[in-house]
Amino acid sequence: MDIRFEQAEARFEGRTVVHPLTLSLRERRIGVIGLNGSGKTTFARMINGLVLPAEGHVTVNGLDTVKDGDKVRGQTGFIFQNPQNQIILPILKEDIALGLKSQKLSKPDTAAAVEAVLARFGIAHLGERRAHELSGGELQLAALASVLVTRPDILIMDEPTNQLDLRNRDLVERTIHRLDENVVVISHDLGLIADFDRVLCFHEGRLAYDGAPAEVIARYRELAA
Ligand SMILES: Nc1ncnc2c1ncn2[C@@H]1O[C@H](COP(=O)(O)OP(=O)(O)OP(=O)(O)O)[C@@H](O)[C@H]1O
């Protein structure tokens, strides 16, 4: 993966939320931390073009998020803070199959891909269930399955363990640790990103610290104190 920010700035209603940022991300697992409102979600949304830079450029694997937004979104799967908003069709299997529609697979190939991704996350038994009946942890796994079935190069997750009880949090954490994909994970759960390859800490819309997890987490603790 190759994510580049070149003096990229995000503004909402004239207010700068991410100050001009120049950055290159190539590590496989990247954690993003910082206080509430520091700009983490906006930064993550800039990667897949959900937020476009008011100034500067963002590229993903050489594709510009402004000029090639659709292609960028084809390569970056995004898991939102509330996974219930991610599942559109009531039956989980149908929802996952919907994600594959643009690939124009045959019916049996679509069904096989859906079964494979459900099995990968240990939720084959949930395929026929209605999304609104799933628990928080099951929903997170279902959201992961619905995004990863399209085989994105980069997976972005916004607070994937938020609102989960201890058991579901552990389940989702273990699942994230086993993923082979490139991941960018925003989290207030510092344990989740403690062994990642690189951690970014945002503060008041600026990248305040950037480096190895232990060092950046220590700085974040000082900042939050
Ligand atoms: N669509 C929007 N319109 C206006 N302001 C926005 C919008 N999205 C975010 N903001 C503002 O931008 C700032 C940064 O928000 P952002 O969601 O990126 O922070 P965050 O670090 O992810 O916060 P949290 O940890 O609370 O989720 C906040 O002041 C927020 O109110």
From TrEMBL:
InterPro entries xref list: AAA+_ATPase, ABC_transporter-like_ATP-bd, ABC_transporter-like_CS, ABC_transpr_CbiO/EcfA_su, ECF_ABC_transporter_ATP-bd, P-loop_NTPase
Entry protein name: ATP-binding protein BioM
Domain of life, per the record? Answer: Bacteria
Show the GO MF annotations. Answer: ATP binding; ATP hydrolysis activity; ATPase-coupled transmembrane transporter activity
User: Locate the ABC transporter domain: which residues?
Assistant: 3-225
Keywords, ordered alphabetically: ATP-binding, Nucleotide-binding, Transport
Transport as a keyword of this entry, yes or no, is yes
